[in-house]
Amino acid sequence: MSLRTTLRAIPTIMRVGFADAIAYRAETIVWIAATTMPLVMLALWSAVARDAPIGRFGAQQMVGYFLAMFIVRQLTGSWAVWLMNMEIRDGTLAQRMLRPIHPLVTYAVAALAELPVRGLLALPIAIVALVAFAGSELTRGPFMWLVWVAAILGGWLITLLTNLAIGCAALFVESSNKIMDVWLALYFVFSGYLFPVELFPRSMRTVVDWLPFRYQLGLPVEIMTGAYDVHHALVMLGRQWAVVGCMLVITAVTWTFGVRRFAAYGG
Amino acid sequence: MISVRGLHKHYRVAKRDAGLRAAVSSLFRRRYETVRAVDGIDFEIAKGERVGFLGPNGAGKTTTLKVLAGLLHPTSGDARVDGHEPRRRKEAFLREITLVLGQKQQLIWDLPPSETFDLNRAIYGIPRATYEKTKGELVELLRIGDVVGRPTRQLSLGERMKCELAAALIHSPKVLFLDEPTIGLDVSMQSIVRDFILRYNERHGATIILTSHNMADVAALCPRVIVIDHGKLVFDGELDELVRRTSPNKRVVLTLASKPDGAALAALGTVVRAGEASAELSVPASEVSRVVARALATLTVEDLTVTDPPLEDVMADVFGARPT
Known about the structure:
The complex is a heterodimer.
Chain A: H1 3-21, H2 25-33, H3 37-51, H4 59-76, H5 80-90, H6 93-97, H7 103-134, H8 142-173, H9 177-190, H10 202-210, H11 213-216, H12 218-224, H13 230-258
Chain B: E1 2-15, H1 20-28, E2 31-45, E3 50-54, H2 61-68, E4 76-81, H3 91-96, E5 97-101, H4 113-124, H5 128-142, H6 157-169, E6 175-179, H7 187-204, E7 207-211, H8 215-221, E8 224-229, E9 232-238, H9 239-246, E10 249-256, H10 262-268, E11 270-274, E12 278-284, H11 288-298, E13 301-307, H12 311-318
Parallel strand pairs in B: 3-7, 3-8, 5-6, 6-7
Antiparallel strand pairs in B: 1-2, 1-4, 8-9, 10-12, 10-13, 11-12
Helix pairs in contact in B: 4-6, 5-6
């Protein structure tokens, strides 16, 4: 599909995706509440760190880390895999394939449209709390904030592309939701979502550095909370975008070969 | 406009018996079988033609439409639609076609149909003025002005189907693949949809391929039919020719002044139906003149019509007792 066609359609796809995401009010509120795990971890780890610091993390740093984690999680979420699985199994993907725009683009834009739904309600509260209770933990300088923006975009792209690649796997194995469950289990442990990856033993951290999970969440949080100087932040950002590139290739290949097997059942 | 040569589409499907034992056993050892959904068919369709695609359940009709719409990759053979190879799903090809699946919908379930129309406007890059004009025409022809603003989930099946058609045609496609477009609709709604399809064909010169188990759709819309069975083409020609070839009998429908005598009717031909003051006979085409003359002479006939047998009966003859 041409880039022009795609770019021209994106605002309308986003608007419709946003309208669809807020169609059910009660469900939207429950959905927003479903990502409050960092706040639970905040209470837990700041209580533990109050007695004695863990690594470089005292109670104040734990508050800063997990509030930042909450914000980053809101900005980098994607749930496209569940929708893709449903649409591949019941054949609804056919309707996306009939339109002159790449189906994966429509999934991506719809996923992007969901972010403001969660962000508009949760983010202002989290940002005020972060500045009020752990403002001193935040990174300084406009350049580092630009790096942070790039890291947020990179983190979202890795999450999205993972969703799309695993969603495309359903074209081979009928249902790939369980693959996503396995991914999520690893993601919770190795991304810094439940505890900072700095707390892993040194030998494990080398492994974590080579896995994609940290670049989804941990890296933007670490940049946001001033864990890196400029040089180190740029090196980590480079690694993150290399992961983005790899995920892009994996997603494109999975789609290209998977779509040949699409059976378009149910019609 | 459409050219199909030696088209095959085979599926590999898992197979297992019912029951817990079979479920557990399939975890370790899965059995597969190959389904030859389309098994080497050839046909050509010219621009502006309206063609009915007929066959019993599982004959390969919908699979063929999905291959032609670019949703399925053929196992082998060649399919072209206006010079495009559908499986490549190029933008220019997708702009020219539409596929309406009676049992699948593109309308966004929780939003009004007007949102899907607008989404399609953006995706197909339709200029705003053209979009408003086309939408206005579709809304008027399909009589959906009062429903396009209500959430899709709150529409009746008929209202939804009409909105589906509007959404599928908002970009004015040149080729329409219609799979059971009147399924589940009441008689008056079916008639509206059929009229609409006919007018669209006349107005835009669009090529239409239609599959339907509703023979009234086929009779009203399709001068030409392609019949497939077990993935193979068994007839390609005019509908009248199919009727003549399959069922050489005609129907003589009589309206009588009094209850007909059974023996007198049986002497004229095969009695299909006999009522209080009416009867329907099946007679060989070559015998029609003789039977009509004899009926007028021996019965108190008030009205008499000679017709072809209903298409349902013709299809039942083609496919034996299997459901079409």
